Amino acid sequence: MFDVGTEPDDELIQHLKECPECRAYYGRCSKAVNLLRPKHVPSAQERKKKIRNFCLSMKLRRAVRYFSYAAVVGIVCIVGMGIYGAVQTKAKAAAIVGAFDSAIEAVSSAEGFSAVLMVRTLPDENFSYISVDAPFVEHSVKVANTSENRVWRIDKEGGRHVVCDGKAQYLWFDNSIKAFVSDKNTNTLEIFYAVVNMKNLMEYEKAEVEHLPGSCYTIEKNDTVLVLTIDAVQEHYEHPVLNFRKSLGEFHNIREYVFSTDSGRLLSLKYWVEVDGSRILVLESRDFCYSSDLHVQDIVAIPRSEHIWIDLRRDLHINSERLMMLRNETPENAAQRILSAVFSGDMENVREAMFLYEPALMNYLRDYEFVRCKKVIYPGGLHDRAFVVTDVRTPQGVNTELVLSIRKDIAGGCWIVDGGL
Amino acid sequence: MSFKMSDRKKTIEHIMQEERDSLFRLACYKTGNADDAADIVQDVFLKIWDMDSVSVRDVKRYLYKSVFNACISYQRVRQDVVFTDFDGLDFLEEQPDDGFEEEYRRISVLLKMIPPEQAEVISLRTIGGKSFDEIASLLGVNVSTVKSRFRYGIDKIQKKIYSSVI
Description:
Chain A has ten helices and 16 strands.
């Protein structure tokens, strides 16, 4: 509907005759489209001629340039400026690397830090889910370095919580009685791992300056802060936080870091991505605080008595034949089996894949229908995580895209659902 | 001495001439000013003409992306020309003597009600006159994504219009 050269078909026309509600809705949409369709375009004949003739003028301009003395002088000037520019660029690069070096030193020597991160995501989704269409969700981050190891905690507003006490990781959800214990090195945090390990993030940024040309860096400095802005459009970088855009084929991002000129500490960060010509803020830090007052007991506190804790470091009690079948599934087969079972309510067939979820939460997906898998994206190039892009049909009979996030690094090698539902 | 245009340049020139009207219309309704719209389009043409790295296949997409970006930069500078609200039923009714300024104001306000990516698709369809397939190709997304953005955008706009009327 409303496409070029399309008119409502007979079936739609008949339905509109019979259904007053749909007829009213269609009428309102038609009116909205009509209001957006301009009838008057300013007369700009002279200007259109200017646009039309520019190609000719470009040819003439090139002819003059090649044969003038001014061009010879210009070449000398350009070479000179190039040398000057190279010196300026090197000095600038050194200043940027220096800022990251100071930040690495500062975070390494700090006893801990805390911050609030506002991220465009959904409360129920996993930590790697960032969407330019989603609202901002608050994440509280606390990290402390003890004499033995590092402990940290991330609380996602309305959603999930993760704690690491240096020996194991603990994951629980606000709307589920189930909670999980896993190995301390499990990649539960996904992109937030880079924030918890701020030193790694700064080291990555420093390496990008040194080894990956193409980004545009600007520095603004005053007595108290140094603001570094990175405008990046490379295809071949693996930014630990913004890598999610790569899977969507979109690379243009802008990153802003603010450092203290006094201590070198990172004070704030902001990330934007550019989508369809618009710059959209997707992550912003607030209340960045380096403190030795963070209490380790508060950071590692977990609600033991409020949840049933499942230890993922042990097997999920699957018989060997089924385990073999599940381990050998391709991501496409797993996505098709899981979605078909969820939509039909066959929870027995997906209990391993859906163990992070409460079965009752899946009721709203009944009567959907799996249509097909379109493609598989492996974020970060690792094959134990996958985004399976599928088409599904809604109960209203409309095809829509659903991207299922699955992983096989925490459940004995079986694909489990990690997000997308 | 003559300078023969390469086939590549000829193709790019042809594409520019084909898309000139659509780009100019879009720039007009993003800037509200025909003079500035023409300058934006010309500047974009000059920039892309000089870019040897743009392949013929990507020229159209670069043209639209560049014009959109230039219009956004223009809007940031021209902060005095921002319509953020509309006043009642009169606004919704097209008048016979509505000129460019009235239409620009109405379209600007309506498109500001929705996310930028939805507004982009809708303006390419209703102002640029592009089909959904063409829009998908220009933006580098699936045609189903284009249709979704169009549908959700129109749905939001009609809701806002008619909820304010009630």
